[in-house]
Specification:
Elements lengths: L1 H4 L2 E3 L2 E3 L8 H27 L2 H16 L10 H25 L2 H9 L6 H18 L2 H11 L5 H8 L3 H24 L1
Antiparallel strand pairs: 1-2
Helix pairs in contact: 2-3, 2-4, 3-4, 6-9, 7-8, 7-9, 8-9
Length: 192
């Protein structure tokens, strides 16, 4: 409680006078007040960046969780600014992930393979599928399985994560890794 006693309210921001570790109750109270005072502005800030209200709420929630995990009082000085910095960084991460997912969409990738024009389309598609199958055999089992469930069986990332007892993030990593490996093998075959 020493840290809370040393907190000074200054224009909606908290400055901490020492670096005493905050207990969970003190952190929770500080974040609760920060939520009450600044959540609307934070959500507006994130909607402007992400162009999605649902994602803005998700990122805001994650930012509050990260703020709750701070242990040192000195790390909590200027809480509002720190909250917006965390949220801004999380929004940037989301935008990067969105671009990667859009660029590496498995459905687009395979649709492109199957819809190439020309009389030899079937032969080329079969050859490329052979290259892809070989590339998938080279991957670790969990990576290959996650990719196959997502692309060929049409399961969502969340379903695969639950089935494989892994995090959503790990499944997305596996799918992206498999996708990159397949693209690399196809590029190598085309060049060589």
């Amino acid at each position: 409680m020493q840290a809370v006693a040393n907190a000074v309210v200054n224009d909606g921001q908290r400055e901490i006078a020492d670096s005493t570790p905050l207990d969970a109750k003190a952190r929770s109270e500080m974040v609760r007040r920060l939520f009450q005072e600044h959540n609307r502005a934070l959500i507006g800030f994130l909607i402007a960046r992400l162009q999605s209200e649902a994602e803005a709420h998700d990122v805001a929630q994650e930012a509050y969780v990260r703020l709750l995990q701070l242990e040192q009082a000195s790390a909590v000085s200027f809480l509002r600014a720190h909250l917006f910095t965390i949220a801004g960084n999380l929004a940037i991460d989301r935008l990067r992930q969105r671009r990667v997912r859009e660029r590496n969409s498995p459905q687009d990738f395979f649709e492109d393979l199957l819809t190439r024009p020309g009389p030899d389309r079937t032969a080329i598609a079969q050859q490329e599928m052979g290259i892809i199958k070989q590339a998938l055999r080279e991957l670790p089992e969990k990576c290959r399985r996650a990719f196959m469930l997502h692309v060929f069986a049409g399961h969502s990332v969340q379903e695969i994560a639950a089935q494989m007892n892994l995090t959503d993030r790990m499944i997305r990593h596996y799918v992206a890794r498999a996708m990159a490996t397949c693209r690399q093998r196809l590029d190598e075959a085309e060049k060589g």
